[in-house]
Design brief:
Elements: H1 5-22, E1 27-30, H2 37-49, E2 58-61, E3 63-65, H3 76-85, E4 95-96, H4 105-118, E5 124-127, E6 149-152, H5 155-161, E7 175-178, H6 181-185, E8 189-194, H7 200-208, E9 226-230, H8 241-249
Parallel strand pairs: 1-2, 1-5, 2-4, 5-8, 8-9
Antiparallel strand pairs: 3-7, 6-7
The protein binds 2-amino-2-deoxy-6-O-phosphono-alpha-D-glucopyranose.
The site of 2-amino-2-deoxy-6-O-phosphono-alpha-D-glucopyranose has 13 residues, from helix 5.
């Protein structure tokens, strides 16, 4: 629980920085959406200051809209280039995403899974939470063992994301390719970012709810190494809030980033 979205970004950047310092050729899992924007700003500032380098890293995006052309500003690959890849020193040819323009969708999804495996798996996976509890684009009802595949977006998610399309709901694609919950759970460390009251239910269900496909993010409870960084409004529905505060305040130094 941190006082502001800016503080969330700094703590998250500390974790990513620590990962890359320990393993300079780390594989970074990249999320889109508004939640990681401040983190990408912070990482870009650190690269400019010379305190971290992604020169030997590779990266895999979580998801992609189906059907948005290469030049579309809201195509996730374009967004990741704009927010992260072109602002840090990563080699753009080592930034990968699912191919939302593939004619053979099943083959493209299988290829993506293979590419992640060949890279040795994801070291740190940055994640946001959908207000409906989705993680990447694994909407409620997704198999908790799912792999990269095509999904149909819920109307809630399309409405949430219409803000990126000038409020035009019809412009928001209906389909996406997304890493599955099972794919995400194979990353070595999951870093979840959530800010604002709109995420309070999703954070509560993710951390404290029953593990259920109704809240796909609740499957993260099955992962041994998850760091969830939230601000006060996003933490407002946590039942064990006092215990988490106490745990955080009393973390031994070796557990801090
Ligand atoms: C989006 C993305 C997710 C993201 C989530 C939350 O639609 N596909 O990867 O984490 O929904 O978005 P935001 O961070 O904008 O609230």
């Amino acid at each position: 629980m941190l006082p502001s979205p800016e503080a969330v970004a700094v703590v998250a950047a500390d974790l990513v920085t620590r990962t890359v310092r320990r393993k300079p050729d780390a594989v970074i899992g990249l999320a889109t959406g508004s939640s990681p924007v401040a983190l990408y700003d912070e990482l870009a500032a650190r690269v400019a200051a010379g305190t971290v380098s992604f020169a030997r890293c590779s990266a895999f995006m979580l998801d992609e809209y189906v059907g948005l052309g290469a030049g579309h500003p809201e195509r996730y690959r374009t967004v990741i280039d704009r927010l992260f890849a072109t602002r840090v020193d990563i080699d753009a040819t080592r930034v990968h995403g699912p191919d939302g323009l593939a004619t053979d969708i099943a083959a493209a999804c299988a290829d993506y899974e293979r590419l992640i495996a060949e890279a040795g798996g994801v070291d740190v996976q940055i994640l946001g939470l959908g207000s409906d509890g989705h993680v990447a684009f694994n909407e409620p009802g997704s198999s908790l063992a799912s792999r990269t595949r095509i999904k149909t977006l819920t109307s809630q998610t399309r409405a949430d994301n219409a803000r990126f399309f000038d409020g035009d709901l019809d412009a928001v694609p209906r389909h996406c390719l997304t890493q599955g919950v099972g794919t995400i759970l194979e990353a070595r460390h999951l870093l979840v970012l959530a800010t604002g009251a709109g995420k309070a239910d999703a954070v509560h269900e993710c951390v404290e709810g029953a593990v259920s496909a109704m809240w796909p993010a609740s499957a993260l409870q099955l992962h041994p190494t998850v760091t969830i960084v939230v601000d006060e409004p996003a933490a407002s529905r946590l039942q064990l809030r006092a215990y988490y505060d106490e745990t955080y305040a009393n973390k031994p130094d070796w557990q801090r980033f």
